[in-house]
Write a structure and sequence with these properties.
Length: about 425
C-alpha cells in the first residue's frame, strides 16, 4: 500500500508539474486552454473551471494540456444550415445550438447566410420563414451546443497558431523546463535535509566487514594520497579504487591532524562494463546553505548528462530496447526505492523528473521536442508547415509511441513474472 500511494503521488506530481508549465505559459500568451489532463483514456474525475476542463484519466502514461486550435470537436457550420441562437444581456450571441433545437424553446432559429467565428465574430442569417437578413455579433466566450454538450468557441486570437513563434516555442518548452525546476527544488531540499558531499575525500561511514574496515579506515578520515599521488576529489578516489579490483592500494589519510598510512585491497564487483573495485566507504555529507543551491543545479545537470548519454547509446544500438522501462518497470523500481527510505524516494523522484524533461525534448513527433522542431522549421523558412500535414505526422508519431509503450510494458511484465 505504501508503494501504491508513493507511486500515485510521484506520478501525479511529475505529470502535474510538467503540464502546469504548458498550462501557465498558454494562459500567459492568451491561449484558450480547453483541457488539463493527468493520464490518458477514460475519465475518472472531471471538473470545469474558468474555461478549462480539469480531468484525471485512467491510464498512468502521462498527461496533456489541450489548447484551442487543435480541436477535434470543433463544429463546422456552413451557409444554409439551420441553427439556434440565444443572447446575453449585451445582445450578443452566447449560445449556438447546432442540433436538438426543440429542446431550447428560447432560441431564435435562423438559416445561416454567413458565419465568421474566427475573426469578425459575426453570424448573418434569415429567421426561418422570413426574408429579412439579420446580423448578430457573437460573444468571444460563446458556446456551441451539440448533442447537449457545450464547447466554447475559440476566436483566432485565442488559438495556438495565432501566437508568435516565441510564445508557441515557450509554451511547448515550458513543460520540460518545469521538470528541471522540480528536480533542482528536490535536490535543494535533499541538500538542506541530509547535507551535500564534502569538498574533500572525507569518509562518512565504513561498511561492516568491508575491505575498508579490514584496512583500518574510520569515519572522518580524509584521504590525501593514493599510491604516492596527491588526491583531493572524490572522483579521483573512485577511479583508483574501481580500476584496482583485488589489487593492493596504498593510501594516506589525515586522522585527527596526523597522517596515517593504510593498505586496502578493493573487492571485485561484477558489472555490465566488467569487474570494478569497491572498498565500502561513503563520502561524508556536510551542511552548507551557500553550497546547497549550486549543488542542486549541478546534480540536475549531471543526471541530465547521464540520461542524454544513455539515450545516445540506445539510438546507436549500444543499449537494447529491452533495457527501457515503462509504468510497470517504474512502479517496480519505486517499490524497491520506497523500502530504503523517504530520502531515497525523494532522490528517485528528482531523477525521474529530469528523465521526463529530457525525454519530452527528444525531437520525435507528438512529443514536445517534435512540436518544437516544427516551430523551429517555421522560424527558418518564414512560414508555417501545412497544419494538416503536421497533424498527420504527430498522429503517426503518437501511434508509434503508444506501440512502443505497449512493447516496453510487456517487457516489464516479463521481467517481473516470467
Amino acid at each position: 500500500m505504501n508503494t501504491i500511494i508513493a507511486f500515485i503521488l510521484m506520478f501525479g506530481l511529475l505529470v502535474f508539474v510538467h503540464e502546469f508549465g504548458h498550462y501557465i505559459f498558454a494562459k500567459r500568451a492568451g491561449m484558450l486552454v480547453r483541457e488539463f489532463a493527468i493520464g490518458f483514456g477514460p475519465k475518472i474525475f472531471s471538473t470545469m473551471k474558468n474555461e478549462t476542463l480539469y480531468t484525471i484519466r485512467l491510464l498512468p502514461m502521462g498527461g496533456y494540456v489541450r489548447v484551442a486550435g487543435e480541436d477535434p470537436e470543433i463544429i463546422e457550420i456552413k451557409p444554409g444550415q439551420h441553427i439556434g441562437v440565444t443572447f446575453n444581456d449585451d445582445e450578443k450571441v452566447n449560445r449556438i445550438i447546432v442540433n436538438n433545437k426543440d429542446k431550447h424553446p428560447d432560441c431564435l432559429v435562423i438559416e445561416v447566410e454567413n458565419i465568421d467565428l474566427d475573426h469578425k465574430l459575426v453570424i448573418e442569417g434569415y429567421e426561418v420563414g422570413e426574408e429579412r437578413l439579420y446580423s448578430f455579433q457573437v460573444d468571444e466566450k460563446a458556446h456551441f451546443i451539440m448533442d447537449e454538450k457545450a464547447t466554447q468557441i475559440a476566436p483566432y486570437n485565442r488559438q495556438f497558431a495565432s501566437k508568435t513563434i516565441g510564445q508557441r516555442g515557450m509554451q511547448l518548452f515550458a513543460g520540460p523546463m518545469m521538470n528541471f525546476v522540480l528536480s533542482i527544488l528536490i535536490f535543494l531540499i535533499l541538500g538542506f535535509i541530509q547535507g551535500i558531499p564534502a569538498d574533500e575525500i572525507k569518509v562518512g561511514s565504513v561498511v561492516e566487514n568491508s575491505p575498508a574496515e579490514e584496512a583500518g579506515f574510520e569515519a572522518n578520515d580524509t584521504v590525501i594520497e593514493i599510491n604516492g599521488q596527491s588526491v583531493s576529489e572524490w572522483s579521483e578516489f573512485e577511479q583508483f579504487v574501481q580500476s584496482s579490483p583485488n589489487q593492493p592500494v596504498d593510501m594516506v589519510v589525515l586522522r585527527n591532524g596526523e597522517e596515517v598510512s593504510l593498505e586496502v585491497v578493493p573487492a571485485s564487483i561484477e558489472t555490465e562494463q566488467g569487474n570494478i573495485g569497491q572498498v565500502g566507504v561513503t563520502l561524508a555529507l556536510e551542511k552548507s546553505f551557500l553550497r546547497t543551491i549550486p549543488y542542486s543545479i549541478q546534480e540536475t545537470y549531471e543526471w541530465s548528462t547521464l540520461i542524454i548519454t544513455n539515450l545516445g547509446k540506445l539510438i546507436t544500438g549500444q543499449f537494447s530496447i529491452d533495457m527501457l522501462s515503462g509504468p510497470v518497470g517504474i512502479y517496480d523500481a519505486t517499490d524497491q526505492v520506497v523500502q530504503t527510505g523517504f530520502l531515497n524516494f525523494l532522490m528517485w523522484t528528482g531523477v525521474l523528473s529530469v528523465n521526463l524533461g529530457i525525454m519530452n525534448l527528444v525531437p520525435l513527433p507528438a512529443l514536445d521536442g517534435g512540436r518544437l522542431l516544427f516551430v523551429g522549421i517555421e522560424a527558418v523558412r518564414g512560414k508555417p508547415i501545412d497544419p494538416q500535414k503536421e497533424g498527420i505526422v504527430h498522429f503517426v508519431g503518437f501511434a508509434l509511441l503508444m506501440l512502443l509503450m505497449i512493447v516496453v510494458t510487456w517487457n516489464d511484465i516479463q521481467r517481473l513474472f516470467l
